[in-house]
# Entry
Amino acid sequence: MENIGTHSTRYEEGLTTRKEVLGASHVERSLGQVSEFSRPIQELVTEYCWGAIWNRDGLDRRSRSMINLAMLTALNRSHELEVHVRGAINNGLSQREIQEVLMQTAIYVGVPAALESFRVAEKVLTEMKLSETS
# Structure
């Protein structure tokens, strides 16, 4: 069994991983907009999703990104998909690899879900390309 650390250690490790994958500015902006009402869910996501799960041995970040793209497509969660397309690029996936993950979802999840994910991914990739040239 892997040592998942203490609450504060997991949170700090999760915060570091979250910033590395999603970008520090995105994470700081998200956490800066947290209300007292939403603070508990942000802390939970940072500690458990990013600290306990994303830092486990067994899968690299590229693999975790591919899985997330497929799951978020299956769940039709466009906002989170947008965030994770950026994360996938940060984790070294190419546009072609993202395209192939989404093609796979068309068969196993459904064409309408895949079409929406292609729209979201293309928007993000275009924005990222524009920001690189600015």
